[in-house]
Amino acid sequence: MKILAFSDLHMARARARDIVAASAEADLVIGAGDFCNMRQGIDEAMAMLAGITRPFVLVPGNAESLDELRGAAPAGATILHGSGVDVSGLKLFGLGHAVPETPFGQWSCDISEAEAERLLAECSVADVLVLHSPPKGLGDATSTGLSVGSTAIREAIVRIQPKLAVCGHIHDSWGQRGTIGATEVVNLGPTVNWFEVTP
């Protein structure tokens, strides 16, 4: 299955145009959170992506709440947060929001490591994990070199061993990739990223 994946659009109109145009070639489109800015503009951000006609799977970032994303997402899109979906035999499981909590204040939609662990425990098998936050130690370095990823997410990747885990959230690590066991892990960023994953 040919997958187009991106994260952290943050209402960048030109980036959205590129993603929508490329999506015509995809079997599945994945959006890994942060479509708007600081809880503002989710309707506008989703309107920018309305031209996506392929199956579209989204998780909320920390810039939008789960309910806000559900209310604004294009018709037919699937929103995951502590839940999974099967797309043409491909098993996906998603976890949104920031893990662990950020220092950004009340606007940021964050969850604790304990809550992330509880939600990820619902998943025993997945081909693709769709995450907003990166795992601890991979794609999670800030501009000062601080590792701010999630231990619960890393432990889930080790346990589940999906073929692919995609994330975003840490802008300084966009484009970084590596492996945890047999799992390819990629911090996406707001660009067109292609993957081939078979069920």
TrEMBL record:
It comes from Seohaeicola zhoushanensis. This is Serine/threonine protein phosphatase. The lineage of its organism: Bacteria, Pseudomonadati, Pseudomonadota, Alphaproteobacteria, Rhodobacterales. Residues 1-191 form the Calcineurin-like phosphoesterase domain. It holds the Pfam family Metallophos_2. PANTHER family: CALCINEURIN-LIKE PHOSPHOESTERASE DOMAIN-CONTAINING PROTEIN (PTHR12905:SF0), METALLOPHOSPHOESTERASE (PTHR12905). Belongs to the metallophosphoesterase superfamily. YfcE family.
